[in-house]
Amino acid sequence: MNVTDSERRRNNILEAIVEAYLETASPVGSELVSRKMRKQLSSATIRNVMGELEEAGLVEQPHTSAGRVPTDRGYRLYVDQLLEAVELSAEELQQMLASVHPNELELKQLFQRVGEVLAEQSHQATVILEPTVKHSRVKQIELLPVGVRKLLCVLVGQETLVVSHVIEVEQPISREEALSLAHFLTSELTGLPIQELLTSLEGRLSEVDASLADLARRSLAILQTVLATEPEERLLLEGTLYLVEQPEFRKNPNKTHQLLRQLELRQALMAKMREELGSPRTCVRIGREINIEGLEACSYILAPFGVRQAVLGGIGVLGPKRMDYRRTRALVEGAADLLSDVLTQWELNG
Amino acid sequence: MNVTDSERRRNNILEAIVEAYLETASPVGSELVSRKMRKQLSSATIRNVMGELEEAGLVEQPHTSAGRVPTDRGYRLYVDQLLEAVELSAEELQQMLASVHPNELELKQLFQRVGEVLAEQSHQATVILEPTVKHSRVKQIELLPVGVRKLLCVLVGQETLVVSHVIEVEQPISREEALSLAHFLTSELTGLPIQELLTSLEGRLSEVDASLADLARRSLAILQTVLATEPEERLLLEGTLYLVEQPEFRKNPNKTHQLLRQLELRQALMAKMREELGSPRTCVRIGREINIEGLEACSYILAPFGVRQAVLGGIGVLGPKRMDYRRTRALVEGAADLLSDVLTQWELNG
DNA sequence: ATTAGCACTCTGAATAACAGAGTGCTAACA
DNA sequence: TGTTAGCACTCTGTTATTCAGAGTGCTAAT
């Protein structure tokens, strides 16, 4: 038996172990694997190979004389090398599509609905990294007085993402004044990356006519407030309940609490995921790879969505390490495609 | 010993039982109560009275020969008759105030911050029923094109609550057209209750000049979409984690899941709470009184906030029945007052 | 009316016994 | 040399048993 053959066999057995474990959630023994492989090999042989797998750090035993459980590295190999891509079933696709009524939907509600459906289909938690206007470029800026000293500020990005905030200004401001400030801002800043607006505007302050100096100063103050009000990033979470109900958490309140704490804080998870979106591919992170305390027992699958080349946000599923990677990945990618389509449509209409 | 005396004694003992139970979370025995009352009465006497209390349905035993636990009716009597009002300590008030930076704050963020602080102070979950523009009257309506067929619709209520939504319209619309539609809507509808806008506008359609009929029709369509997009009501939730970590849930995953399910659905809780806000007083609901499956082990304290006479929303704490009602009530009312103040200020500036 | 004393009850923790599942090793086999 | 049957061994999770502790209700004394 040559090297490749023996390697292939090891992989088959690892695959069987992983898949059995995904189903049963309890350590899998040699007998079960043997049956799963239609007795091509006896349980004794399987045991030998399992020893090798353990040696290689791909599986482990919770204790002597228990079955094997895949390690993070085991899952990793399974995902990278043993998992062929599958398409979403027609029915699942249908379900997903049914969740969208694009014409009467606020973008945020769209995300929420798709998130809910994805959570329900996968029976796991959904995370959505919302597109934020801060990663976009200025297309339009509007200012509307909605009270003596209150100003509604609207910032439209190039993908027609819109945010609006009500802020308080020091001086009462008239409709006309507001209009001219907005005009000034729009004409000065169109096309610039929103994250760098403040520095851009400050740079221009010096070049500007003396007659406009006051205008510029006031605009700057307003913009500053708006950008401070708008959060850097937003993470939507749906279906945490599914996650908590998984057997790995049912019995272990401490684990559950740690998990919930992380989900409530969000910060760490958000940063991590934004980072992942740097690459425009679906990514899978398993257990410790996530490198967040409290999520050791979890994996996530995250896919970016956007318009044309630009990645605007990401949608993913957070579940127990013991998740159905094949199906979940298909679901996540389906959802991401759906969102990309809607956003593209949205932009065309904008 | 006359009737009043014996009644007073019973109440004292009930109070001692409740307070001991709040501290220890385990059934309280006669000996402990006797000690709590500085041995004014022996444990044997306490036992007799406890028998009466049980007879009266105010306390119960988890099993023969365990201590007593207050029933819902026991808590109710305790809250209604034995609980004097207390003020917030200076320090707590300070903490609360520190959570607010009113000048640079979006209203929603304000609620969130106050909610977080309240959750942290009380070590329980906070619920906030957000003010919704739907319960207000029209002050101003604005329409701004933010794309060929996209319209930003701004609805300002009398308390200067603002909502804005982006909707898609069938026909491309110019800035001037949008302006005139908005003008038309504002002039027609100012002062009307927003919830009844559609009927009002429909009523007026008939009275309007033929020359304006098209204007009116288009406005109506837009308004319809906006009102459909804006949700009836919103419930903010903070600090569920605190709640889940309480001893009554720690050991009981099923209870925990039921609880989390209710909190995820929100619907039932929201309806119930909106109902409570009919009366402009702080309200306390205990266990079964809430009448929502999954919240039997919880109580909530809810206080309305608003501007002048008008109740705009409510803030409350949801915790285990075994909560410190005295302190929690003070905290909740403190938070509600704080919000009322900020909103009043907000309105004055608007 | 109150209380000391006591027999009784129930829980929760600790311990032991045990079936079940799975392993690693050895020796036989193809 | 790779595979397999067989077996002794190990570890877990469950069930049964015991036992101390806490608390009660009742009775009789104060």
Number of domains of chain A: 3
Q: Please indicate the percent range of residues of chain A in DSSP E strands (runs of 2 or more).
A: 15-25%
Termini Cα gap of chain A: 63 Å
| Approximate shape of chain A | elongated
Helical residues, percent of chain A: 40-55%
Low-confidence stretches of chain A: none
CATH superfamily of the largest domain in chain A: GAF domain
Oligomer: homodimer
Mean pLDDT of chain A: 91
Strand order of the largest sheet of chain A: 7-3-10-9-8
The CATH C-level name of the largest domain in chain A is Alpha Beta
Order of helices and strands of chain A: HHHEEHHHEEEEHHHEHHHHEEEH
Strand element count of chain A:
10
The largest β sheet of chain A comes out as: 5 strands, antiparallel
Q: Say what the CATH topology of the largest domain in chain A is.
A: Beta-Lactamase
Q: Which structural class matches the secondary elements of chain A? A: alpha+beta
CATH architecture of the largest domain in chain A: 2-Layer Sandwich
Tally of DSSP helical segments of chain A:
14
**CA-atom Rg of chain A in angstroms:** 26 Å
Most extensive interface: A-B, 42 and 42 residues
Descriptive report:
The structure is a homodimer of 350-residue chains. Chain A is an alpha+beta fold and 350 residues long. Chain A has 3 domains: 3-82, Winged helix-like DNA-binding domain superfamily/Winged helix DNA-binding domain (Arc Repressor Mutant, subunit A, Orthogonal Bundle); 90-131 and 233-349, GAF domain (Beta-Lactamase, 2-Layer Sandwich), CATH 3.30.450; 134-229, Enolase-like, domain 1 (2-Layer Sandwich), CATH 3.30.390. Chain A has 14 helices and 10 strands. Chain A has helices at 3-24, 30-36, 43-55, 72-82, 90-98, 107-122, 175-189, 197-207, 213-229, 240-244, 247-250, 253-265, 267-276, 325-349; strands spanning 59-60, 69-70, 125-129, 138-145, 150-157, 162-168, 235-238, 283-286, 298-307, 310-320. Chain A has a 5-stranded antiparallel β-sheet with strand order 7-3-10-9-8, with helices on both faces. In chain A, helix 2 packs across helix 3 (43-55). The longest helix of chain A is centred in the C-terminal third of the chain and has 25 residues, at 325-349. In chain A, 40% of the residues are buried. The model of chain A has no long low-confidence stretch (mean pLDDT 91). The interface between A and B is large, with 42 and 42 residues.
